[in-house]
Structures are given as structure tokens and as C-alpha cells.
UniProtKB/TrEMBL annotation:
<feature type="signal peptide">
    <location>
        <begin position="1"/>
        <end position="25"/>
    </location>
</feature>
<dbReference type="InterPro" id="IPR030678">
    <property type="entry name" value="Peptide/Ni-bd"/>
</dbReference>
<protein>
    <submittedName>
        <fullName>Oligopeptide ABC transporter, periplasmic oligopeptide-binding protein OppA</fullName>
    </submittedName>
</protein>
<feature type="domain" description="Solute-binding protein family 5">
    <location>
        <begin position="81"/>
        <end position="419"/>
    </location>
</feature>
<keyword id="KW-0732">Signal</keyword>
<dbReference type="Pfam" id="PF00496">
    <property type="entry name" value="SBP_bac_5"/>
</dbReference>
<dbReference type="InterPro" id="IPR039424">
    <property type="entry name" value="SBP_5"/>
</dbReference>
<dbReference type="InterPro" id="IPR000914">
    <property type="entry name" value="SBP_5_dom"/>
</dbReference>
Length: 499
């Protein structure tokens, strides 16, 4: 069992606070804890990777800063709600019509129009690489009668949900260059205007007083990019930051409890078992592996209690899953492993996973398996995992992608033609259940079909969900109304302020 040395960790925190003071943004205005409209100091996990292009993962930074907005938002259940579009309807099997909100101006002073929205969507389809929400999707957009018409190559009941992706945030036409580059500085429509980006170090945003909705209560945001987790935790302790993304598990216990919030994430740590070759082609041995795993031991020991024991593939970040899930019946009976030799692999990029592998090895060996571990960096192990070269693979996997819907994850990971099928699973019942869910409109019936598909996957024991991760957010006691968003789309909203 892994035990962390608290006293040495405290010393590292203190040293980091001293050494990394210069890494934090000073901002364009005065920052204060005592003024309700003061500037919010934010320490973020990752620096921009693509110059804050909204067509990349950097889009989630623009969304979390409330500077770029989408046509559609999602509620807690993943249902579509109005944003820059006030309403939408399906006008044919493949075409949706959206009504654009009136009275919206971009930060450069230009007006939001149907043509501006179409410009963004069209450029997204031509971007290289395309936003991942458009992977495998043929989408075109045109303006007609002040409306936006979005057409897909195949009927797609999730078009509104797709349009909620931060990678399809609508920017002013001035944001888009002839060279294909996108500049989000001063071209969003949210309550905060991005005014400066200092490479991969800092970004500065000011309140936008021309915002169409509720005006921001804080004067601005001074964001710093601080990849070192110890330094981010130290920033809360020292007052260098008011809000901190992704506090490491090892640092959370060192912070004042009032400054720590744990947010369930739609991310599951799962043991994938190779159903095509090796010992786990035997359903009885897969059932034996399932019976051997004690997820509670992993949560308590490796995650220090800061995770949730899995009851299924979908966790507490999707409240409807627990509410609608039925107890599984007709499970395969566990066979005696009789010393069956297996390779158990994972990757080192996520610090907890090698520890999880060590605990799992002990549990599986107690059950009668003989286990050999393989641990590499993800870039050096993914290809072998997808090729089925391991008997078992531990993966931390997002269960809802940019549409906020888990069907794409189930299709890619567990169907015969899935592009990320580490378990090499090809089961007629699973494919049928996933196809059924795919075709249903968003809402309660689709969610019920998704849970049927989850049950079909679990009955195969090709995937054994162990735990659901939480993201740990740090908020100074002076912060009011920061967002705790499982999808990590929101962080600072118009309502966020300092006491």
C-alpha cells in the first residue's frame, strides 16, 4: 500500500510558494480579496497547446473563462438548453433550424447574426484537424431568413448537443484569418472579454459591460498556467490564486477543508479484459477477475477516499444513471483461475494508475492468477493496447465526450466496429443495444436505452469498472459562486465574485 509523507510534502508546498511567485499573473487591474468587484486570480492546469484556437482542446479554457459562448448549453442531464440560439427544431430527417438570439454583440462591437454563426460552423468543418465533436460527422450550415440551418449527412438526433461543444463556440468574423488561424482575443461574446494572452504563461480578461445577459460581478480574470500540481496547491495557501484547477490528491489533505471541493467527473477507471485472445477469452475467467477486484481497497488506498466506487460504467457525474440502473442478473459464474498467467498493463501519465496496477496485481494473484505488469508512457503503449497485445488493461476513460452523451463512448469502446475497442469485444447483444440507443432522440427514452446498453456490456465482463474519478478544485474562502462543473466547461461565470 502506498503511503505519502505528509511532512516532506508540506516542505515542498512551502518551497513552491516561494520559488513560483513570479509564475502568476498580476492582471490589468488591481486584485483584491476585499472588494466584491475585484479581479479573480486563477491558476490553471495546462497551458494553451494550440494558441487558444477554439477548434482545439484550448476551447475549454475559453469556455471556463466565460469569454466564448456556444449556440446551445447543456443541463445536468445533458439535455440541450438555449444559449446564443434561443430555440431549434428538426425540419427534416437531416436538417435542424436554429433561431439566433437578438441583441448580442461580440467583444469587437460587431453583432451576432445567423451569418456569423454559419461562418464559425463552416470554418470548423474545414479546420485541420477538425474539432473532435465533428469526427465522422458530415455537417453543413447556411443562413436562411435570419435562421441557421444545420444539415448532417445522416440523421443525427444529437445535433443540438453537438452544437454545445466549446469547440464550436461562435466568435466574431474578425477572429478568423485567411491562413486558417483563429484569434479569440477580443472576439468572443461572453461576460468576460479576453484582452491579452502572454504565450503559455498568463491570460487577462476584463468584464464586458456590453454583455447581453447578466453582467459579470467581478472586474476581470487574471489566469496563470501552472502545470506543477504542488505549486497550484501552494497558490491557494499563499493567496497567489483565488481559484485553482485540479489540485492533486496528494496535496488536497494539506489544504484547509473549506478551500477544497471534490467534483465527480464523467471519467471511469476500468479494467478492460481481452476477449479475443489469451486466458480471458474464457467468460468464466473474466468473471473470476471481476470477483477478485476490491474497488473499495483501491479508492481508500490509492485515491485516499477521493473517488467513488463504481456501480457501472457511468458514475455520479451522470445522476440519472444511478437513478435508472437496475441490478444485473444472469451473471457468469466465476471459474477457478488455476494459476492462469496474464499480462496486466497500464500507463504512467496518470500518476495513480501504476499504483492501481500494483494493488490489482495483488488482488488477482490472491484469486489464483499469475500476473505480469507492463507500465509505459501512454504514447508508447496505446498502439499495443488497441492491437490486443495485453490480457488486461487499466484505463482512465471519459464516458461522455463533447456532446455530453455516453453513446459515442460505448460505440467506440465496446462494439464490433469500435475504434477504441481495447477489450476486442464483439457481442451481438451489445451491438444491438448500442444501436438502439444511438437512434433514439435525446431525453428519458434515450437514457433508458443507454442503461440497457451498459448492462449488456457489463454482462460480458469485458470491462470491469472500478472507480469514478473526482476533480479537486481549490477556492479561497473569499470566492463566491465559482462553478463546479463535472464536464469542466464552466469555472468562472458572470455570478462568480470575491467577497
Amino acid at each position: 500500500m502506498h503511503h505519502r509523507k505528509t511532512m516532506s510534502a508540506v516542505a515542498v508546498v512551502a518551497a513552491s510558494a516561494l520559488l513560483l511567485t513570479g509564475c502568476f499573473a498580476s492582471g490589468s487591474g488591481q486584485s483584491t480579496d476585499s472588494s466584491g468587484d475585484g479581479r479573480i486570480k486563477l491558476a490553471m492546469l495546462q497551458p494553451p497547446r494550440s494558441g487558444l484556437s477554439p477548434f482545439s482542446d484550448d476551447a475549454f479554457k475559453l469556455s471556463r473563462w466565460s469569454t466564448a459562448e456556444t449556440l446551445v448549453n447543456l443541463d445536468e442531464d445533458g439535455d440541450a438548453r438555449p444559449a446564443l440560439a434561443t430555440e431549434w427544431k428538426r425540419v427534416s430527417g437531416t436538417t435542424w433550424e436554429l433561431t439566433i438570439r437578438q441583441g448580442v454583440t461580440f467583444h469587437d462591437g460587431s453583432a451576432l447574426t445567423a451569418e456569423a454563426a454559419v461562418n464559425t460552423l463552416t470554418r470548423a468543418t474545414k479546420a485541420s484537424p477538425k474539432p473532435r465533436i465533428l469526427d465522422g460527422v458530415e455537417l453543413t450550415a447556411k443562413a436562411e431568413g435570419g435562421k441557421v440551418l444545420v444539415t448532417t449527412g445522416q440523421p443525427d438526433p444529437l445535433v443540438p448537443q453537438r452544437l454545445s461543444s466549446p469547440q464550436l463556440a461562435i466568435l466574431a468574423p474578425s477572429a478568423y484569418g485567411a491562413d486558417g488561424k483563429v484569434n479569440p482575443v477580443g472576439t468572443g461574446s461572453g461576460p468576460y472579454k479576453l484582452v491579452n494572452v502572454n504565450g503559455t504563461t498568463t491570460a487577462t480578461l476584463d468584464r464586458y459591460d456590453g454583455y447581453w445577459g447578466e453582467k459579470a460581478k467581478a472586474a476581470g480574470i487574471d489566469a496563470s498556467f501552472v502545470p506543477d500540481g504542488t505549486a497550484r496547491a501552494a497558490a491557494i495557501r499563499s493567496g497567489q490564486a483565488h481559484i485553482v484547477e485540479a489540485v492533486p490528491v496528494s496535496q488536497a489533505a494539506l489544504l484547509d477543508k473549506e478551500t477544497v471541493t471534490e467534483v465527480p467527473m464523467p471519467r471511469t477507471n476500468t479494467l478492460y479484459l481481452n476477449t479475443k485472445s489469451g486466458p480471458f477469452t474464457d467468460p468464466g475467467l473474466r468473471a473470476a477477475a471481476r470477483a477478485a477486484i476490491n474497488a473499495e481497497e483501491i479508492v481508500k488506498g490509492v485515491y485516499e477516499g477521493r473517488a467513488d466506487v463504481a456501480k457501472g460504467l457511468l458514475g455520479p457525474a451522470l445522476p440519472w444513471a444511478a437513478a435508472g440502473r437496475k441490478e444485473l442478473t444472469d451473471r457468469t459464474v466465476a471459474a477457478d483461475p488455476k494459476g492462469a498467467a496474464i499480462t496486466l498493463a497500464t500507463f504512467s501519465d496518470r500518476a495513480e494508475l501504476p499504483e492501481v496496477a500494483s494493488v490489482l496485481q495483488q488482488q488477482l494473484e490472491r484469486a489464483g492468477f499469475k500476473v505480469q505488469q507492463v507500465v509505459r508512457e501512454y504514447a508508447h503503449i496505446e498502439q499495443d493496447a488497441l492491437a490486443g497485445k495485453f490480457d488486461a488493461f487499466i484505463l482512465s476513460r471519459a464516458t461522455v465526450l463533447d456532446s455530453g452523451d455516453p453513446v459515442a463512448y460505448m460505440k467506440s469502446d465496446f462494439t464490433c466496429d469500435g475504434s477504441f475497442n481495447i477489450a476486442q469485444l464483439c457481442d451481438q447483444n451489445v451491438d444491438k443495444a448500442v444501436d438502439k440507443a444511438t437512434a433514439i432522440e435525446a431525453g428519458d427514452q434515450r437514457r433508458a436505452a443507454i442503461l440497457e446498453a451498459e448492462a449488456a456490456v457489463l454482462r460480458t465482463d469485458a470491462a470491469i469498472p472500478m472507480l469514478h474519478e473526482r476533480v479537486i478544485q481549490g477556492d479561497a474562502t473569499s470566492v463566491v459562486d465559482s462553478a463546479r462543473d463535472p464536464r469542466e466547461r464552466l469555472l468562472i461565470t458572470a455570478a462568480t465574485r470575491l467577497k
